[in-house]
Amino acid sequence: MTTLPPRPPLCLRCWLAVALIAAAVVASFVYLGIDYGALGSAESLRLMGKFVAEFFPPDVSPEFLAKVGHGALQTLAVSALGTVLAAVAGAVLALPASGRIGGPLRHGARFVLNFLRSVPELVWAALMVLAAGIGPFAGALALSLHTTGVLGRLFAEALENAPREPEQALALSGAGPVAAFSYASLPIVLPQWVAYTLYRWEMNIRMAAVLGFVGGGGLGQLLYFHLSIFQQQQAMTVLIAMFVLVTFVDLASACLRKGLGPAYA
């Protein structure tokens, strides 16, 4: 009968890290001072049930459904345009960020990418609303700026991890740098780039629905309007439209990613 090797004891550093995390969690609850007794009281539960009941039944009148359908198409267009612009800009910045054009450009491109993705989409949307006005164009610009920082970093890392031997072999055979990159390195990383872009599109469709709260157009702006005037039934219809749209985009993106060839990672 074989005996299992003894389980190694947890190190002192691990116990200290767990204790610090537990202390931080407890301190957070104490600092917030949430009255859980009042939250779970019968009166609070009654008010929460009344609030939820006000969202039903959803407004399914033809006029309002047409308005929601227009908002859904606008949200889809904002997410698609923002993602496409970000994919193009990210690919351009990924070349210097991967170190293929020299050290100074690498640091400069990475600084730009870090700055773009460090600013949240809602902040970019607020700035773009001031610059371009309220509407879907501001939402598309906000998504493209933040997503450029994300995709540019991912594209650059894919280029760094890709083998350089095929490109070097073409260069030694007399091919120019553009041709060597286009016929050697680009086919290796392109499936991974497309997969990253589709995944970010899934995330952007959700964020595009939220950007309407700061004037980015689409379903979010429609939801904010009806919630602000306490039309919960209309707001419930918008929420259902958001769920249907996100589900459709998730399924479509998953099907497209399955059809991609294997990527080097």
Automatic annotation (TrEMBL):
Entry's Gene Ontology cellular component terms: plasma membrane
Primary site of residence: membrane
PROSITE patterns: ABC_TM1
Membrane topology, from the record: Multi-pass membrane protein
Key words, A-Z: Cell membrane, Membrane, Transmembrane, Transmembrane helix, Transport
Transmembrane spans: 12-34, 76-101, 122-145, 169-196, 208-229, 235-256
Pfam families named among the record's database cross-references: BPD_transp_1 (PF00528)
Domain ABC transmembrane type-1: 72-253
A single GO molecular function term of this UniProt record: ABC-type phosphonate transporter activity
SUPFAM superfamilies noted in UniProt: MetI-like (SSF161098)
Presence of the UniProt keyword Membrane in the record: yes
Subcellular localization, as worded in the UniProt entry: Cell membrane
Family indicated by similarity: Belongs to the binding-protein-dependent transport system permease family.
Protein's UniProt name: Phosphonate transport system permease protein
Organism: Variovorax boronicumulans
